Inverse folding.
């Protein structure tokens, strides 16, 4: 297996390097993992106020021992009492385990377990689960700036294979790109009704507050939902277009009741999002945006105070 997979990994890394040269808002590849992940080197001065928060959280390999609590918001928060999603379940498998991003609030883990079972009922073999959160949440050491409070999960558009995957497969198998090369619609050779049923099943779970997909996928969902405006289209309210997200969709669940410091996202607009507002995503300036000015790194000073003891604890 190693002799087959490793050349694939080399090729995939080359593709990823090309992607980095493109605009990061458009290209969103599932980068390969590692069979021998190495711990990050110690920070020279971890107590310096200027140290990016992502450098601190990425160096914590275990959860903070406390009752489960999501603190802060999507792009500025942390997680206490995280629970790990088992690597293999009855209807799911974790991908890229070397990243150690398979943690979440227990309610997120329960959702994935439930969603996996419900997905099988609509013909999906099982879920491939990508990034959830780091053991203590916080920003990841990449451009993946959300997933900070343990309430988000990336679900691959590739169905789970009919066997328990090897470590090599989990680390190096590429994702399934559903969007056509021109970014204006899904690829008809790859898109299936099963993809629409999978997203609809996730959206219909009451704890889900938002799902992010590529705009081309949102267009396809609107088309498959049909022109009958009297039918139940409320699940589409939760499904919103965003840059990238061509190989996976991002699911976010609601703030748990026992997490008073959790900042919920803005509620979805009371619209299925299939009207003229979708046109914005297919403008040339949106499909190929100019790179923006980098934002200064988030530090602990810019995070909720409760996050400091969580990341500073052993």
């Amino acid at each position: 297996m190693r002799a087959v997979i490793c050349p694939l990994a080399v090729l995939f890394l080359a593709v990823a390097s090309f992607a980095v040269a493109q605009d990061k808002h458009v290209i969103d590849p599932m980068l390969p993992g590692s069979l021998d992940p190495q711990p990050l080197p110690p920070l020279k001065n971890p107590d310096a106020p200027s140290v990016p928060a992502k450098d601190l959280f990425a160096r914590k390999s275990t959860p903070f021992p406390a009752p489960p609590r999501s603190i802060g918001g999507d792009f500025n928060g942390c997680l206490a009492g995280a629970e790990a999603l088992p690597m293999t379940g009855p209807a799911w498998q974790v991908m890229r385990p070397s990243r150690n991003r398979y943690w979440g609030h227990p309610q997120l883990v329960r959702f994935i377990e439930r969603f996996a079972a419900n997905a099988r009922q609509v013909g999906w073999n099982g879920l491939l689960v990508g990034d959830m959160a780091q053991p203590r949440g916080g920003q990841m050491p990449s451009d993946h700036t959300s997933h900070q409070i343990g309430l988000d999960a990336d679900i691959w558009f590739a169905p789970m294979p009919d066997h328990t995957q090897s470590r090599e497969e989990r680390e190096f198998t590429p994702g399934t790109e559903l969007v056509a090369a021109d970014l204006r619609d899904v690829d008809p050779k790859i898109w299936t009704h099963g993809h629409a049923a999978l997203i609809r099943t996730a959206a219909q779970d009451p704890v889900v507050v938002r799902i992010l997909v590529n705009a081309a996928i949102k267009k396809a969902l609107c088309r498959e939902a049909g022109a009958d405006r009297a039918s139940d289209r409320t699940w589409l309210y939760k499904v919103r277009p965003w840059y990238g997200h061509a190989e996976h969709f991002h699911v976010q669940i609601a703030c748990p009741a026992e997490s008073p410091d959790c900042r919920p996202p803005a509620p979805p607009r009371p619209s299925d999002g299939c009207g003229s507002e979708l046109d914005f995503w297919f403008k040339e300036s949106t499909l190929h945006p100019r790179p923006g000015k980098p934002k200064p790194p988030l530090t602990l000073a810019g995070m909720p105070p409760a996050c400091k003891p969580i990341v500073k604890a052993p």
The domain at 2-34+60-312 is CATH 3.30.1380.10 (Muramoyl-pentapeptide Carboxypeptidase; domain 2).
